[in-house]
Design goal:
Strand content: under 5%
Structural class: mainly alpha
Number of strands: 0
Radius of gyration: 18 Å
Oligomer: single chain
Number of helices: 8
Shape: elongated
Order of helices and strands: HHHHHHHH
Largest sheet: none
Length: 190
């Protein structure tokens, strides 16, 4: 029997592996199935191998804090997987997230994710016709903050007086154009 370690969770919205829970569509659900982050009570009871290893066995909050992080086969496979495939959340920026955190710290990363989340909330509130949540979550993950801000400003200007479906098409068009120009991929990779 594994003894349970008492770990102080400081960043429940930052995944153990480096993903931003704030940009996940399951984080923005308003129902019982809402996920409050990878280290929330909802997810801690799930069978995530990273939760089991990091938090429950080793008593650490993140994989990169582990003394074995450079030789861990599980984390290496996860990072390799993330370069090509997504699950229900976009993994496209996982390596960039890890590099940023290792260089600038978790606190700085959290600040950026809060900014991205605020932009995502704005997209969801003003431009979601009920079918674009995942798309906007991916855009908030993949695009640079300045690109998201410019896209929102332009979409607001170009959609004055339009119904929500038309407003959504305007923002989609702007985001798609940025993605095409910058070679971003705004779909979950299967």
């Amino acid at each position: 029997m594994t003894k349970k370690l008492d770990v102080q969770i400081k960043y429940p919205e930052i995944g153990i592996c480096g993903l931003s829970c704030r940009l996940c569509s399951r984080y923005h659900i308003e129902s019982k199935s809402r996920c409050g982050g990878c280290k929330s009570e909802f997810r801690m009871s799930a069978g995530c191998p990273f939760i089991t290893c990091s938090i429950k066995k080793k008593g650490i909050e993140f994989c990169w804090q582990c003394t074995e992080n450079e030789t861990c086969e599980k984390w290496r496979k996860h990072r390799e997987f993330s370069k090509q495939v997504d699950s229900f959340i976009c993994y496209q920026k996982l390596e960039d997230n890890i590099a940023f955190i290792q260089k600038n710290g978790v606190c700085e990363f959290e600040k950026l994710q809060k900014t991205r989340e605020n932009l995502l909330k704005e997209m969801l509130q003003e431009f979601n016709e009920g079918r674009s949540k995942s798309y906007y979550c991916i855009a908030a993950t993949v695009l640079e903050i300045e690109e998201l801000e410019e896209a929102l400003t332009k979409a607001k200007e170009d959609s004055i007086g339009l119904e929500i479906k038309s407003k959504s098409k305007v923002l989609h068009s702007i985001l798609d154009e940025i993605a095409k120009r910058k070679n971003y991929y705004l779909k979950l990779r299967k």
